[in-house]
Amino acid sequence: MSHHLVEFENVRFRYPDGTEALKGASFRITHGESVGIIGANGAGKSTLLMQMNGYMLPSAGTVTIGDLQLTKKTRPEIRKKVGVVFQNPDDQLFMPTVHDDVAFGPLNLGMHAEKVQERVLTALRTVGCLDLREKPPHRLSGGQKRAVSIATVIAMDPDILVMDEPSSNLDPKSRRYLMNLLKKFEHTKIVAAHDLDFILEVCRRCLVIHDGRIVADGPAGEILTDQSLLEENNLELPLSLQSRSVPESVVARFDRRQVPE
Questions:
Q1: Dihedral pair phi/psi, residue 68, rounded to 5°
Q2: What does the pLDDT read at residue 143?
Q3: What contacts 119, CB < 8 A, 6 or more positions away?
Q4: Alpha carbons 249 and 258: distance in angstroms, whole number
Q5: For the domain that residue 148 is a member of, what is the CATH number?
Q6: 55: closest CA among 164, 154, 150?
C-alpha cells in the first residue's frame, strides 16, 4: 500500500542559527511497520519526525509520503496521511473540552457533524477515555492527556502514526496502558524515544540516529541487545536487560518477530 510509504533520501536540515540537525538521513518504511527511532540527545530524532508531515521542510534531499514528495504545495495533503503526537500533550490540547479537542481536526477537514461525532466517539473509545469527553483537558492526569492527544490524531484517521517520546512523564500503569494500546493499532507506527524498553516492547524494527545520520537499521531485538552498538552511539541497554548478560533466548525471541517486507 503505497499510501503508507515513508521514504527519506539523503535528507538534510539546517536551522536558522546554522545548526545542521540532519546530515543525509536515508531510510524507507512500508505498510504496517512499527519502527522505533533512538539516539542520544541532539542526535536529530525530533527534527526527523517534524519532517514527516511538513512541520519542517528539508534543506536538501527528499521526503516522500505515499505517492507525494513533501513540498509546501503537497504539505496539506500529506498532513492528512501522517498524524503526529507531540512530546508534550499540552501542545496538542487547547480546546475547552476533550470532545472539542478530538473534534477539532475532523471539523477542519469539513466533515459533516454526524461523521465528526462518530470519529470522536470511536477515537475516545479506542484510547479508553470516552468518559472524559466533557472534561477540560487541563484537569486531566498526565496519562489521560497523553491518551487524549493520541485520540486527536486517531480521529483524523491517518495512514501513519508518528509519536515523539510517548512514554515521557507517565507513571508505570499509564505507560503499560499506552504500550498495550499501541500494540493493538494497525497503523504504521513510528516512535522516537529515549525509553528503550518501550521501543523494545512496541516496535519490531529500530533505527539508530547519530549526529544527524542513520547509522544502524534492523530488528529491534537485535539492535537493542547490541551493547557495543548502543555504547558507540551514547546509549545504554534497555533497563530490563542491564546488570546481566543478554541470553541468546532474548535475542531469538525478538528476532523471530519478522519485520514486514
A1: -110, 135
A2: 83
A3: 102, 103, 106, 111, 155, 157
A4: 16
A5: 3.40.50.300
A6: 164
Residue 29: what pLDDT?
96
CB atoms inside a 10 Å sphere around CB 119: 22
Name 95's Cβ contacts closer than 8 Å, sequence gap at least 6.
101, 104, 137
Residues of the chain with pLDDT under 70: 1-3, 243-261
**pLDDT tens track for 118-134:** 999 999 988 889 999 99
* Residue keyed to cell 509520503: 65
Would you say residue 179 lies in a domain?
yes
**Cβ atoms of residues 190 and 154 within 8 Å:** no
Does residue 139 lie in a domain region?
yes
pLDDT in tens, 181-200: 888 887 799 999 999 999 99
Which of 92, 89, 15, 4 lies closest to 47, judged by CA? 15
Closest by CA position to 211, among listed 13, 28, 42:
42
pLDDT at 135: 95
- Beta-bridge mates of residue 56: none
Domain that holds residue 14: 2-255
| 221 to 200, 246, 259: CA distances (angstroms) | 7, 11, 11
